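Lecture 7 notes: from sequence to structure.

We start with a single chain of 288 residues. Read the sequence below before looking at the structure.
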Amino acid sequence: MPSSLVDGNSLLAVDVGAATTRAVFFDVVEGEYRFVASGTAPSTAEAPFKDVSEGARSAIASLQGVLGRTLLDGARNLITPTQSNGSGVDSLVVTISAGPTIKAVVVGLLQDVSIESARRLTASTYTRVVDTIGLNDHRRPDEQIDSILRLRPDLVVITGGTDGGASRSIQKLLEPIGLASFLLPEEKRPSVLYAGNQKMEEEVKSLVGSLSASLHFTPNVRPSLETEDLDPAEREMAHMVVEIRKRQLKGVEALSLWSGGHMLPTAYATGRMVRFLAKVYGSSKGIL
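Now the structure, written as tokens:
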């Protein structure tokens, strides 16, 4: 078994919270990863800094004092990889929970099937469902469009139809999404995640592809009425949340570059960690 599961040995993990930013240093000791030290600093998403990277730099600077090891250069940028003089770190991962609640609109066919799956999907990260559009929505299309224009969602999650199933009904639901996105200022258009009937992908691209901030596809969350599969959509949504944070918060882009794109929402990363530990320790031990 290799002594390291990542390139190099030392690993720095930074968590950017709403109030506190924490930097944690791990290194390989006797062939195993061990926690070495941590540093904290107030988060800086809000005034006067309004730049989350400043809080990360301060937390890393605090960690430097504990470690007695230089991690930041003279310009306060992270040194990677580890240098011959012992400064720097081999790898960085970042998690983030700072930022406003992400407003989501859920679109689906049946309230207790695809819409319910979409709601469970949005619950996996920092979102709040502000509107739901489905077959049982009695509003006229212009009323649905007005609602989207008023709410200005950050994210639209579209589900519905088993694979190879309903298509015309989904197309009808997509039209107000496309029209509302067209009427919004380009910088205010939502990101769209499509996790419905896979044979509809080309029509989805045609109706909303050029009118959204970004369009993402994942396998159907309801490939059949009896089957729900949220994992692929949760992974994709986690990356979409990071992209939304880049638009909302200064400094997120810089941290993403430092980490080589290894950035995830804290809630999703924590869920992955719990599932990993459950597999490692088996069902005989609980995870708290």
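Strands lie at 11-16, 20-29, 32-42, 91-96, 102-107, 127-133, 155-158, 191-194, 214-217, 263-265. Keep this in mind for problem set 3.
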